[in-house]
Automatic annotation (TrEMBL):
<dbReference type="InterPro" id="IPR055438">
    <property type="entry name" value="AstE_AspA_cat"/>
</dbReference>
<dbReference type="GO" id="GO:0004181">
    <property type="term" value="F:metallocarboxypeptidase activity"/>
</dbReference>
<dbReference type="GO" id="GO:0008270">
    <property type="term" value="F:zinc ion binding"/>
</dbReference>
<protein>
    <recommendedName>
        <fullName>Peptidase M14 domain-containing protein</fullName>
    </recommendedName>
</protein>
<keyword id="KW-0378">Hydrolase</keyword>
<comment type="similarity">
    <text>Belongs to the peptidase M14 family.</text>
</comment>
<dbReference type="GO" id="GO:0006508">
    <property type="term" value="P:proteolysis"/>
</dbReference>
<dbReference type="GO" id="GO:0016788">
    <property type="term" value="F:hydrolase activity, acting on ester bonds"/>
</dbReference>
<dbReference type="Pfam" id="PF24827">
    <property type="entry name" value="AstE_AspA_cat"/>
</dbReference>
<dbReference type="InterPro" id="IPR000834">
    <property type="entry name" value="Peptidase_M14"/>
</dbReference>
<keyword id="KW-0862">Zinc</keyword>
<keyword id="KW-0479">Metal-binding</keyword>
<feature type="domain" description="Peptidase M14">
    <location>
        <begin position="40"/>
        <end position="302"/>
    </location>
</feature>
Amino acid sequence: MHKHLLAMAAAVQARAYHIGAPGSKWGPAELSQWRAEHIKSRPYDDDVVKVLDSLRDEYDVIEYGTLTYDGVSHKLYAARSKDWNNRPKVLVTGGVHGYETSGVHGALRLLQTKCKDYAERGLDILVAPCVSPWGYEHIQRWNYDAVDPNRSFKRNDPDACGSQEARALVNLVRNHGSDGWACHIDLHETTDTDESEFQPAKAARDGDVYEEGTIPDGFYLCGDEKNPRLEFQRAVIKGVSDVTHIAPADPDGTIIGSKVVADGVILYDYTALGLCGGVTDAPLTTTTEVYPDSAKATAEECNKAQVESVLSALDFLLAERSWGPAVKALGGGMP
C-alpha cells in the first residue's frame, strides 16, 4: 500500500502545473505569474481588422464593443450582410478561444469567398471572426483574467456573463433581435496543447488534479444535447469529409470523453456549460473542432474545413423546411 501511495503521489507531482501549489486554487500571485509568462505573439489589427476593413464594400462592418486589459484595448468587429432584412438569421463565430487559429481565419475566409452568395440566396448572415482578440494575440485559450470565454456565456443576461468577450457578443446578438435566428456555427479547434498546457493549467487554477485525456486525430462536431438535430450534424460532417478526415471514436466509443452519437459527433449541454453555441435560440447549432496538429492536415486544409462546415450548414438550412417556430414565424423570405 505504501508503494502504491508513493506511486500515486509521484504521478500527481509529474503532472503538476508549474504555477501554484497542488490542491490550492490560484490567487493574485499565481494569476500575475501566469500573465507575465504570456507575451503578444501575433497582431490582431493586421491579421483580422485589416482584412475586415478590406471587405467594407461587401459587408457592413460593425464595431460591437471594446475589450480593455491592463490599459490595452482591442475593438471588437463583426461583418453583416448588407441586405439585412428580417430574414432567417445566421451567426458564425470564430476565435472564442483565441489560440484556435483556423476558427479566426476560417471565418475571415468565409467572408472573402462564398458568404455573400448565401446572403443573396435569402439569409441574413452575421460573422464575428475573432471574439477573443487578447487570446488571439497571446495564443491563449483563456482571456487576460485566466477565464475561459467559452464557459462564460449567459444568453438571457449579458450582465451575468463571466467575461468581457461573452458579454459583448451576447449584446451584439441581442441588438440584432432575439427571434429569427435559424443557425449558429461556432468555429473551434482541438490542439495538442489542450493536454500539454491548457488542461493542466485549468486543474492548477482550480486546485484540482490533472487527469490526462486524449486528443482526437481529425475533425469532429459538438452538438447541443438539448437539441441535437443529428441529421444536421451528419450533413455538416459529410460536407467536411470531402476536405479533411473525420476523427474516429476512441476504443470506448467516446471523443474527448463524450459518447459518440453519430460519426464524428458528440453532444454537450450548451446552456449549462455557458458555451458560445448557446448564444442564440437557433434550431440549428453546431460547434466545429478541427485538429491542426494532425500529420494528415495542413493549416490551409483546416481553414478550408472551417469554411466547408459553414457552407454545409447553410446548404442544409436552405434545403430544410422545418426550422422551428422562431424561423417559421418569419413567413417568407426563403427561395
